[in-house]
Amino acid sequence: MTERNVVTEVVAKSLCCGCGVCTAVCRGKALEMRFNTLGELVPVLTGKCAHCQLCLKVCPALEVGEPLLPEELFGPGAKMGRDPHIGGFIECCVGYSSRHRMKSASGGMATWTLEQLFQKDKINAAICVGRSPKNDRLFEPVIVSSAAELSYCSSSRYYPVEFSSVLKDVLRNEGRYAIVALPCAVTAIRKAQRAVLLLRERIRYVFALACGHGVSKHFTGFLLAAARLTEAKVKMVDFRYSARSHKATNFAFRAQHAEGNWSNLLYFDGLYGALWTGRFFVPRACDFCDDLFAPLADATFMDAWLPEYTGDVHGTSIVVARHPEVSRLMQGAKESGAFLRPITIARVRQSQSGALAYKTTYLPLRVARAERNGLRIPRSFPRAVVPGGLKERLAKIKHGARARICRLAFDLEGRPRRLWISVLAAYLHAQRAWRAARRRVARL
Question: What is the pLDDT of residues 349-376, one digit of tens each?
Fold first, then answer.
């Protein structure tokens, strides 16, 4: 019998998002999450497969397995609006928490929401991303047991994390948990809640952060190398440092040396942003993901990337509430130090317009290109007709060269190769200069 599991059906095709949910629910305890040579977290088969295929049922890359819908958790009574991209919603708000936004990536509303749930005794534990004590990674999901501990998990981490360890802790220990994850992990968690009753009983709230794409650990490795540092020499990394003289959209990357001093700032309108928007060190799975707003989450949080809010350097959040309890928190926000006002669903979509276009408009062409090259995408996405001609041949050469540079920039042990780091940095600077020149010409 041919062995079918998440390693053979997903990892082997480079379609794994690295959420780790499969490893948490594996009945034979045969899976372990490890970094591959590309700096991506993937499950590795370390024991005997039980052939239960539960790993396949919870995998967000596959259409097998039914997710637990939010309506099933809080009942069908809530009146919800519907949007083809955002899913169901009770209300959408924009604003910030005055106490949390200074330490948060945007308006601090995710931290505020968790704090309110702690204070109202709706939860007694929260799962969010914090510093990792492990030698092979900087961050990982942690379980905090009080509102006071949430400050250790605030701000964004553009770094791969997996939930296998914390979900195993949830299965071992009773509690009322809330969890914050990216949309792909939210889908996997909802599928796992359908398959494993204990996860349904204990995880009371599933929250999402809107996501355009993930990154491998080499994304951080490149930025550290540009700052003349390595992970081994770093005490702390800040991906969303807000320089007071810049807009909210032009945050900076900085790293703290083991000795305590901070590196030079890498701004988003420079090398940092060119690396991110150029989608370097992005897992292949992200190219075939259409989930930006996590419609299966009880609430989704995102930056308010709208002209009227980006001028506020402290940041502003948008919240899409789907759970009635979260909606009630939003309505009483002012008494708890948060300042919110309604925002239309069209404006929510507009705030993430670039990422939304990539995940919808341009997805059929990426799927068609991948299948033309022999990769079968195991989901029912629309397919486009791949154009021919010189432009498509040049695009293929470009994508191949980019992928090769990303592979060469780090050795098999994950150490940066200075020459190829310099080559990629030079390419990014040249690309920025070319685009700036085109914009100047267009304005003439």
Answer: 999 999 999 999 999 999 999 988 888 8
Residue 332 makes CB contacts below 8 A (sequence gap 6+) with none
- Rounded to the nearest 10 degrees, how much is the dihedral formed by the CA atoms of 10, 16, 20, 23? 20
Q: What is the tens place of the pLDDT at every residue in 298-311?
A: 999 999 999 999 98
Res 278 pLDDT > 70: yes
Provide the CATH topology of domain 6-58: Alpha-Beta Plaits (3.30.70)
Average per-residue pLDDT for the chain: 91
What percent helix, strand, coil does the chain show, rounded to 5? 40, 20, 40
Round to whole Å and give the CA distance between 120 and 140: 27
CB 421, CB 219: distance < 8 Å = no
Residue 435 tokens, joined: 């685009």
Nearest CA to 2 among 36, 53, 68? Answer: 53
Specify the higher pLDDT residue, 362 or 102. Answer: 362
Spatial CA neighbour of 25 closest among 160, 165, 121, 139: 165
Q: How many CB atoms lie within 10 A of CB 165?
A: 17
Nearest CA to 92 out of 84, 102, 83 is that of 83
**Any idea which of 111-120, 139-148, 187-196, 379-388 has the lowest mean pLDDT?**
379-388
Which structure tokens are listed for 49? 């497969």
Q: What is the DSSP string of 356-395?
A: HHHHHTSHHHHHHHHHHTTPPP-S----PPPP-HHHHHHH
Q: Is the pTM of this model over 0.85?
A: yes
Phi–psi pair at 48, nearest 5 degrees? -85, 125
The domain limits of the chain are 6-58
C-alpha to C-alpha distance for 403 and 91, rounded to whole angstroms: 41
Q: Edge-to-edge, what's the strand order for the sheet holding 177-181? A: 139-144, 125-131, 177-181, 203-209, 299-303, 317-321, 91-97, 338-342
What is the residue whose two structure tokens read 């791969």?
160
* Interatomic CA distance for residues 282 and 113, integer angstroms: 30
